[in-house]
Amino acid sequence: MDSKVQQKIGLKHGSGGRAMRQLIEDVFLSLASPVDGIGLSALDDGAAIRVGDRWLVITTDSHVVHPIFFPGGDIGRISVSGTVNDLAMMGATEPVGLTCAVIIEEGFPRADLERVVASMRETAKEAGAPFVTGDTKVMGKGQVDGLVLNTTGVALADRVVSDAGLRAGDLLVVTGSIGDHGMAVMARRHDLRLEGDLRSDVAPINGLVRAALAAGGEDVVAMKDPTRGGVAGVLHEMAAKGGVGIVVDEPSLPINDEVRAAGEMIGIDPLLVANEGKAVIGVRARSADKVLAALRAHPLGARATVFARAIAERPGAVILDTGFGKRMLAEPEGELLPRIC
Amino acid sequence: MSNDDLFRQLKFRDPARARALAEALRHNMDAIGREVSVMHVCGSHEQAIARFGLRAVLPPGLELIMGPGCPVCVTDGPEVDEAVALAMQGVRVCTYGDMLRLPGTARSLADAQADGGKVEVVYSISQAVELAQAHPEEQVVFLASGFETTAVATAAVALASPPPNFSILSVHKYVPAAMEIVAASKETHIEGYVAAGHAAIITGWAIFEPFAARTGAPVVVAGFEPLDILAALVKLTELIREGRPEVANVYPRCVTKEGNLPAQRSLWRAFRTVTGRWRGIADVPGGNLELVPELAALDARKRFRIDTAGVRDAAAEEEAKGCICGRIMLGLATPEHCALFGTTCVPESPVGACMVSSEGQCRIWHTYGGVPDLRKVG
Lengths: 341, 378
What we know:
The complex is a heterodimer of chains A (about 350) and B (about 375).
Chain A lengths: L17 H9 L10 E2 L8 E5 L2 E10 L5 E2 L2 E2 H15 L5 E11 L4 H18 L3 E9 L7 E11 L13 E4 L5 H10 L16 H11 L3 E5 L5 H13 L2 E5 L7 H10 L13 E4 L4 H9 L8 E7 L6 E4 L4 E3 L13
Parallel strand pairs in A: 6-7, 11-14
Antiparallel strand pairs in A: 1-2, 2-3, 3-8, 4-5, 6-8, 9-12, 9-13, 10-12, 11-13, 14-15
Helix pairs in contact in A: 2-3, 5-8
Chain B lengths: L2 H8 L4 H18 L3 E5 L2 H9 L10 E5 L10 H12 L3 E4 L13 H6 L4 E3 L3 H10 L5 E5 L3 H11 L7 E5 L4 H10 L7 E5 H7 L5 H7 L3 E4 L3 H16 L5 E3 L11 H10 E8 L3 E10 L8 H4 L10 H7 L4 H5 L31 H7 L11
């Protein structure tokens, strides 16, 4: 791939794939300084800084989505869930505070703003995460697209889980059906008029992750939520950082029929599509059953499944066993575009 | 297509049946007892093979090669130049999406569009006709690409008295001619062919009989589900094992011996085969479809003076950059033999035609992560 980022930033640089990683490594990593714990250079879901015998976990995320309201959720629910989930992916399932910065485009309907904020309030309550401070800006028509939300979350944890902890023999669990959010948004955005019930999975999953950590303890070794870049993006990161190969058993992936059908129709693999209420969890094989049982006992984890395993061969590679044969699972690259013919 | 239709298709995806077919394939290869190379000539077959990882279950010694099966890839640079020249002289040029980024010798239609040329992506030729009807003051040209399958649609429109401001720039190609080129090549040693099911729906499977008899290589017509392809390989290796250069059809749910006769009649009322240059390959006798003299008034080449003076040899230039698309399309190399593959040549900035089209082998391999030997992994 390009060794240098091109002269202008394109949409692909924000899509959670290879182009975005390259941009971050080339430009933003210069901001990194050494910390006692997990800092910027780890490119994890958030930072973990040692404070006494505990960890202060921090994460921040900006949220833009088209359309702002979509089947199953809205930008407000995403802004809370995304940040709460990023904290949870570091092992910090009890947020102590959230911040919210809002940038509003001139002309944005007040009723829509109130609806978004109500959704944020409800989602924060669901997650047990209090908003503690915020900021509001309004920009001129055309200077920002509708509404941009930034949320930051802070939590304390006794133990942190990175996304780099896999070793050969570990199993990977996904907490439920994949692709629902991205496919629902894409179907709405492109007005695909598909039959069936395509709904986003957006939800705070800190409670679900807490149950997995309680059951698996130290044997939960890696976690990541498959947002932009989808499950494929997460697996590539986990394989590269853990120095392992990963073999995915494609037939065992939980995928809703509607998502599968939409994917076939528009030529987009559900593995590449964003999820907003799921986690990929790496577990030592001996504890996989316990973790799976704990996940399945939770309402958001009923379809949790072991779907992949780490191997010593081909470090950094992700191999898809399709049930018919095997192929490499490509790393997501740029913006996902439905095929036009 | 409704979801129900899609779910009906999904029942073809049965891994247990796939394992049984892979076992039968292994049995045939054991009986043959030497290395065998077979070829398919269809981008949609390559899509299914790459997506389902079928090469990882092929028995050792069986090589499955993609031939010149991508109609966009084999469209020659000067053919693109003609369309670019028309767009730049104020004609509205309509074509399928993949043709937009295909490089001409100097520029692509996308470049022409950026330079102010009138270029429009359409989903079908009928949409181009509608544009002509909506803009009677303009000349609308449909750049007609694709193999027999799409040529039939072009033929139907050509024979249905389209509006007077509508014409056709045909770069249609004819698949059986390409198989002849491969069979005649001294470098390839293809012992059997998997033929594209959708083209055969039109032409019928019997069309391949003279080819099989003359070249001694059996041909099996196949559909596009993973099981279709595995079944075709089982049948093909069986014919090779028994030394029977025959044609078989493992896609009987869609393909008949004689094919779609009304479609064939339309095709040959509208087109005749002529020798044409295929990008990166050669002049292919009978490889291009040209509108018949009776439809000359619809032929954009006859209606307009298309000035493509100063065109260069695009394939030679791509080769100079290290592109091996020509060798890939002839089945002499795979994308992994190309130093540019996945590094300087990627879908966003393709060097050669095979990385441009979603039917091109490089693009397909790139999408599905390349195909290193995974037979022994995990």
